[in-house]
């Protein structure tokens, strides 16, 4: 019976059906169940939802990309769960301010609602969450929360900020959103290493 579970948290304009999510699920077929839910637009609701999944499903690792990695750091440090943060967008307000207005999600969401709006209310909520994102970070978590940074990421440049709080930073020759091949080649081995490392820490 399969017991290992991995929780993948997608980026801001993505969904649980995005290419990185699909690639991760396929890569771990037969080895672990990869949960790839759609996340709520609002960060406080997203965080409550993620924490609830963690308490119910007990994933052994969180894997996030971009905004999903921003949220993963917060939940992982709160609950002590190992996490791989892919191109974490640690200052989401900066991302949102430049994109005020109506948008569409780039991958299909389960509820069929593909439209979203970035407004000042959403930015203010992210600002509040952002201000407290490091409240539970601690040196003892350095072995559990790792960062993976694309060398051609032209959107997020937060490795220096990440390294103020954690020590394990890895790199891959990709952009902000990894391709399926990059997920298989760079994300999957680190997720496996993190799962094995976590077993040795127990």
Write a brief caption for the model.
With 202 residues, the chain is an alpha/beta fold. Helix content is 41%, strand content 17%. The chain has helices spanning 19-27, 43-57, 67-79, 92-97, 120-131, 159-163, 180-201; strands at residues 5-9, 33-35, 61-65, 83-86, 101-104, 115-118, 145-150, 169-172.
Structure write-up:
The model has no long low-confidence stretch (mean pLDDT 95). α6 links the parallel β7 and β8. The protein has helices spanning 19-27, 43-57, 67-79, 92-97, 120-131, 159-163, 180-201, and strands spanning 5-9, 33-35, 61-65, 83-86, 101-104, 115-118, 145-150, 169-172. It has one domain: Rossmann fold. By secondary structure, the chain is of the alpha/beta class. Helices cover 41% and strands 17% of the residues. A six-stranded parallel sheet has the order 2-1-3-4-7-8, with helices on both faces. Strands 5-6 form a two-stranded antiparallel ribbon.
């Amino acid at each position: 019976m399969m017991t290992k579970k991995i929780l993948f948290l997608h980026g801001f304009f993505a969904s649980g059906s995005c290419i990185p999510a699909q690639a991760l699920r396929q890569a771990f077929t037969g080895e672990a169940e990869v949960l790839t839910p759609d996340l709520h637009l609002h960060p406080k609701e997203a965080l409550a939802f993620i924490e609830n999944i963690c308490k119910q499903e007990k994933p052994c690792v969180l894997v996030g990309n971009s905004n999903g990695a921003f949220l993963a750091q917060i939940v992982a440090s709160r609950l002590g769960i190992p996490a791989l943060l892919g191109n974490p967008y640690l200052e989401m307000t900066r991302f949102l301010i430049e994109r005020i207005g109506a948008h569409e999600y780039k991958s299909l969401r389960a509820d069929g609602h593909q439209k979203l709006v970035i407004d000042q209310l959403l930015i203010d909520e992210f600002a509040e969450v952002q201000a407290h994102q490091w409240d539970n970070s601690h040196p003892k978590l350095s072995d559990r929360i790792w960062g993976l940074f694309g060398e051609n990421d032209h959107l997020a440049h937060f490795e220096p900020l990440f390294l103020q709080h954690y020590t394990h930073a890895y790199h891959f020759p990709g952009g902000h959103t990894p391709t399926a091949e990059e997920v298989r080649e760079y994300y999957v081995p680190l997720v496996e290493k993190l799962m094995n490392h976590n077993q040795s820490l127990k």
